[in-house]
Design goal:
By secondary structure, this protein is mainly β. It is about 5% helix and about 35% strand. It has 5 helices and 39 strands. The strands form 11 sheets. Strands 1-2-3-4-5-6 form a 6-stranded mixed beta sheet, with helices on one face. A 4-stranded antiparallel beta sheet has the order 19-20-21-22, with no helix packed on it. The chain has a 4-stranded antiparallel beta sheet with strand order 23-24-25-26, with no helix packed on it. It is flat and about 95 Å long.
């Protein structure tokens, strides 16, 4: 491959591509405006690319929203995104793209970024394990190969006219309904389950078949072949499965002995037992080795939450209790568990809560082309917005009021007033602020990933470029804070705190540290 690196503002890109038509591997660096995208698209046509790297290439930050608006979900088909727009919009998936037969993939071929217009196209190992909940299959599809939608959660599947064949293990047993068109000719008998399932008869979906199909028909949700109309084609009849509802809360049953808070804490490790109200009548416990999982107990040791239907419990002291059930549905109860205060719905999902009464929540995006379909913010129990729903990711606030937040591909920190306290100059945190008020952040500079140590003033205490630094190498990293020095190991592991006046690096495995600048102690990795 003939590789070239093009840096903006050094040359005109259109002229450059005409002079380097032999380029099949290109690295782009710099920033462009949305208006310049069309010129870059035309220039790329001069090259026969096999690979392009845009890790150091982006649209100017202030114009990122404009780029998304230009390719919003309600555009006409003739206005589909251009190739350069597609690459930039998929940058959160991958920075490097490969070109094969007019199609664009991520390097591992697990992400199809762009598909060329052609009469037929086979796409294997592509929608598996993607947690898809809804699909729309075009009529141009003739065959659905094995494992195509394996390990997704699609309850209803309607195959369009034109589909002729479906192979094994295409859908998992979460499917409740599937419709086969009149064109269907081949149906694998294990298209809907894995061979390891012990009782496939309990997993058969309700199957409907177009009445004009010459080979198959359905009766009461069971699939039959016209050549053998008396035996179920899959070997099993459809049986409607009615799941018994599992209660989330359970009523107390024992009132024989009332225990004191000290007695209750003595029964559980301190870190596994916390009072949730000031009267000390209810306690949160995590008893994995006992009854299993999270629970809330009263002074009579009654367990008030059905741990078989509970995935997580959080509480805001003296205010409310947040419980996620086994289906990830969130309900927020009053502190005594007697009243439902809030509940997930299609408009808002409740993620977590804090002691001060703040609820971290998410809402669907208005534009669904983004890799993430939700935006995060903070509300209170009255649904009043504290932090607007404008963040791709939002962490909880620490003891000094800093919360990690991410907008698009940029990350920083905000406070409870939604003011930016650490600029959105980073890609992702490796470690949030610790007891020494030091955070470790990833940052891209000229296309290279850096690991940066910062304090709460966003002052750089030290950094290294992840170019020759490998994950398992034994090395020390030195940083400074308030005039003193500290050290950490690979990617900030086991930071010492800034306790030393001087540190000498002996080799990659050994350093010498001194608290007074005169007496040194040797530390080996």
């Amino acid at each position: 491959m003939k590789s070239y690196i093009f840096k903006l503002f050094q040359d005109d890109f259109t002229q450059w591509t005409k002079q380097h038509t032999d380029c099949d591997c290109l690295v782009l660096n710099g920033e462009i405006t949305v208006k310049e995208i069309a010129d870059f698209d035309k220039a790329l046509a001069n090259l026969k690319l096999q690979q392009i790297d845009i890790s150091g290439f982006s649209v100017k930050e202030k114009e990122e929203n404009e780029l998304w608006q230009n390719v919003s979900s309600d555009v006409d088909f003739d206005q589909t995104p251009s190739l350069m727009e597609i690459l930039l919009l998929n940058k959160e998936h991958t920075d490097v793209f490969v070109f094969e037969n007019g199609n664009v993939y991520s390097p591992d071929h697990r992400v199809l970024v762009h598909c060329s217009k052609c009469e037929s196209f086979e796409l294997p190992s592509c929608f598996e394990y993607n947690e898809i909940e809804e699909i729309s299959i075009p009529s141009s599809v003739k065959k659905i190969g094995s494992d195509a939608f394996h390990c997704n959660y699609i309850e209803k599947v309607i195959l369009p006219e034109g589909v002729e064949s479906i192979e094994w293990n295409v859908f998992t047993h979460q499917n409740n309904y599937i419709y086969f068109p009149s064109t269907m000719k081949e149906i694998a008998k294990d298209f809907f389950y894995e061979e390891c399932i012990d009782v496939p008869e309990e997993c058969v979906p309700y199957i409907d078949v177009d009445e004009n199909n010459p080979l198959f028909f359905s009766r009461n949700g069971t699939l039959y072949s016209r050549s053998n109309p008396d035996e179920p084609y899959l070997g099993y009849e459809y049986k409607e499965y009615v799941e018994e509802p599992i209660p989330l809360l359970v009523a107390p049953s024992s009132f024989e002995k009332e225990y004191s808070p000290d007695e209750i804490k003595a029964m559980f490790p301190d870190y596994n037992c916390k009072p949730i109200n000031s009267e000390n009548t209810l306690f949160w416990i995590y008893d994995f080795y006992g009854t299993g999982g999270y629970n809330i107990i009263d002074r009579y040791l009654n367990r008030l939450v059905n741990h078989g239907n509970c995935r997580d419990i959080q509480f805001s002291f003296d205010r409310f209790v947040l419980i996620k059930d086994s289906s990830y549905h969130t309900t927020i109860f009053s502190i005594d568990l007697s009243t439902i205060l809030l509940e997930d719905d299609d408009n808002c999902t409740f993620e977590s809560c804090s002691n001060d009464g703040h609820i971290f929540a998410s809402v669907p995006k208005s534009v669904n082309l983004s890799p993430s379909n939700r935006l995060y913010g903070v509300i209170n129990i009255n649904r009043e917005v504290i932090i607007p729903f404008e963040y791709k990711k939002l962490g909880e606030f620490d003891e000094k009021g800093y919360a990690f937040a991410q907008k698009g591909s940029k990350a920083g920190f905000i406070n409870m007033q939604n003011n930016v306290v650490i600029p959105f100059d980073y890609t992702y945190p490796y470690r949030l602020f610790d007891k020494n008020d030091i955070a470790i952040m990833f940052k891209k500079v000229k296309g290279k990933e850096q690991v940066v140590y910062i304090n709460r003033k966003n002052e750089c205490l030290g950094c290294f470029v992840d170019e020759t630094f490998h994950l398992h190498e034994k090395r020390f990293h030195i940083y400074t804070c308030n005039g003193l020095m500290g050290f950490a190991r690979q990617f900030g592991a086991n930071p010492s705190g800034a306790n030393y006046k001087d540190i000498n690096i002996v080799d990659e495995n050994t350093i010498e540290v001194s608290e007074d600048g005169y007496n040194y102690t040797t530390i080996k990795y």
